[in-house]
Write the C-alpha cells for this entry.
Amino acid sequence: MKSIDLAALLIGLVSLSLAAGAASETPATGGNAANGKRVFVTDGCYYCHGTTGAGGGIAGPRLAPNPLPLEGVKAKVRTASGRMPVYSATVLKDSEIADIVAYLQSIPNSTDAKDIPLLNR
C-alpha cells in the first residue's frame, strides 16, 4: 500500500472515530450527562449500582453500558419493585431521569479481557 493511501485510510478512520464520539456525547434522551452523573451520585444511585452503573452484586443490577431506554428507566424509578425505592416526580424530576440515562449512555463498554495484553501472558 502506498504511503499516501495509508495516510488517507488513517485520516478516514480517525474521522469516523471522532464522529462516533461526537454522536455519543448527544444521547437520544436529550439529557445532560454531566448533570446526570451529579444526580446519580448525590441522590445515592451509586450506593447500589456503583459509580459507573456496573452494579453491585446482589445490591443493584448493572445499568451501564447500554442502559434501558428512557421510558423503561422512568417506569422502574416511578414503580415499586424489589428493593429499588420509588422516586416520585417531587423527589426526582423527569428531566433528571433523562440526565441520568444520558450519563449511563455516556459510559463506554469495558475493554474485552482478550484485548488486555497483561491478562494474555
About this structure: The chain has one domain: 3-109. The two ends are 32 Å apart (CA to CA). The first helix runs from residue 3 to 24.
